[in-house]
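Notebook entry, structure prediction.
Reason for the run: the old model in the group folder had no record of what sequence produced it. Starting over properly, with the input documented here first.
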Amino acid sequence: MPNAKELEGLRDAFTGESLNPSKGLYRCTKCRVYYHAASFSVLVSENSSQCVSCGSPNLVGVSSESARQQGGVNYDPTVVTLANVHLHAGRVVTFEGYAHQVHQSRRQKDYAVMFENATWTKGFKLVFFRGSVHRVGGPAFIYSLRGRSVRVRGLIIDHSRFGLEILVSERSMILSVR
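New structure, fully documented this time:
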């Protein structure tokens, strides 16, 4: 079985995290980018099972041996701002913006970092669901983003009820905080 070093340099197209075969691997048969199993699950539930790089629905599970033999490419996301974020729904991008507020959900387990002075349902935001809160650094880290410029890599979702958002599931998705 190959180790992570044999896949050196390849990253999960969704999170940007270095590929780790022990996390399960999926590959786009069209553009050859890879995803960990957790990222694939998000794509199934939030992006109609489509590749964030090319939009193809042809994502297949692969063994680490197959990944090593077939190789792959990295996805380099487009950099977007608040002015053009709406044009990139369904794509993984790099977004940078000023975090005006942090809101906690009514059930007090989910958080939203707001990039616009708007309600949770109206403004563009990062969303941290309860299952990812501790993986990203906990509530204290999320609240520390308020009043700072945040650079994040993530899938822009145009949710029918909550509007434009990026779901943050891993700390590696937060690229910088200034």
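Summary: The radius of gyration is 16 Å.
The old model has been moved to the deprecated folder.
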